[in-house]
Amino acid sequence: MINALFAKLLKINILMGFGVIFTPIGYLIFVFSTNFMAAATGFFLLTFALSFANTGFLTFYQNNIPVEIMGRFFTVFGLVEAAFIVLFTLAIGIAAELIEIRLGALSYF
């Protein structure tokens, strides 16, 4: 309901900008939280930012991509996204095998 209210009041670029800026901030708060309240705050910010970003991006696509090619566009876009997910997961897995996790954790502290 909050997203629907703000989607009518704000421009598309503001919705996308809010989502793009606050999604990583929400992830960082969530990842580096040491107690439940900090994790809940990060998760809450993350979910709001993702909903605003998705609304902005989908509205932008619907306004700027012709209906005749919209299905093909989303199919190609989904294929590229899935390929990047597989490649990044593979890269992170290889890095985890080559670099000890304990070394990374010790360098953080």
What do these coordinates show?
With 109 residues, the chain is mainly α. The radius of gyration is 18 Å and the shape is flat.
List the helices and strands and how they pair.
Elements: H1 2-9, H2 12-31, H3 36-64, H4 67-98, H5 101-108
Helix pairs in contact: 2-3
**Low-confidence parts:** none
Q: What spatial form do the alpha-carbon principal axes imply?
A: flat
Considering DSSP H and I runs of 4 or more, what fraction of the residues is helical?
over 70%
Element-level helix/strand string: HHHHH
Give the overall average pLDDT. 85
Structural class: mainly alpha
Record field, number of beta strands: 0
Sketch the major β-sheet.
none
Integer-rounded radius of gyration: 18 Å
Strand fraction equals: under 5%
Distance N to C terminus: 42 Å
Q: If helices are DSSP runs of H or I spanning 4 or more residues, what is the number of helices?
A: 5
